[in-house]
Structure formats: structure tokens, C-alpha cells
Records
---
Amino acid sequence: MTTLILKKPHLSEKATFLKEKNNAYVFVVDKTANKKTVAQEIKRLYKVEVSDVRIVNLPKKPKNLGKTRGFSAGFKKAIVYIKTGQAINIV
């Protein structure tokens, strides 16, 4: 059974800046993902050459809604740098 490594693209202001400036794309990935598996999955899905992968594990954050207290879910994201002249079409 294979697990889905890439969950979704992470679209934010900082991610857009990274895409324009450094040719880097940000994805939310599975908690068990590592740099090698992320690079292989990007190559397989988007047919581009990956030059570097950086992974950030973001913790859960406390949230309040009235008297109810809880946590927002933490997640892991990968910043994928690809070779110059190549692009990934994320809609």
C-alpha cells in the first residue's frame, strides 16, 4: 500500500514570493515524508529536475472559540527548489 506523499500545494504570500524569486514551490506533505521521497514524487508527477528540498515541521497552535479551547492541527511542509528554466503549473 502506497501513501500519498504530497497532500496539496501550500499557497501563501511567502510561497508566491519564493516561486517568483528562487524558483521554489511549497507543498504540504505527509508526516512520514522525507527529502528523498518528496524529490522522487516531484520528479514523477511534474517531470522536473529537483535541485534541493527543505522540510519544515510546523507544530500545532492553541486556539480559542468562546469558552471552547483546542488546537489547530500542525503539519509538515516541503520547500522544493527546481532547476532554472523549469516550472510547475499549480492552479
---
Amino acid sequence: MSNAPRNTGQGSAKDAPVRFEEALKKLETIVEAMESSEMPLDTLLAKYEEGAKLVQVCQSRLAEAELKIQRLEQTSAGELKLERMSPEASED
């Protein structure tokens, strides 16, 4: 049995998660290809599945960004400060 880290479904087959911009660009490419050409059903379904996974990645990244924005606080000097979140707080 391998001790290598497992893919959590938040990216491609690589260990590093896909960045939001990369996922969005791939998703746009998939949508354009699906709209502009006649694909065999098997290919169409595979593209749809890949697109659905990319949508999940984008939604996850946006949710993380929203949490960070919500945690921004304005200090008494008028500066914005990012409040650190505990891992337990982000699972709610």
C-alpha cells in the first residue's frame, strides 16, 4: 500500500490543487467545445463530468475567498486586517 497523498477531488491528478483561474479557463474551454462541435456521446459525457468537477473547484475557491473577505476587520487606525480562522471554524 502506498503512503503517497491521495487526491481529494479538488484538482486534477496532480497533488497541487487547481487554481481558480486555471479551473475557470478549463471550464470555459470545455463549454466552448461542447457548444461548437458535435461530439460522440461518450466524449460529451466525459467533458460534462470534467466540467462538473471544475465547477466544484471554482465554487470551493470562491467560498474560501468569501470567508477571507468576511474575516477582514478594520482596525482602530482604519487599516484592514485579516483575522486568522481556525480549521474548525471553516468546516461549519
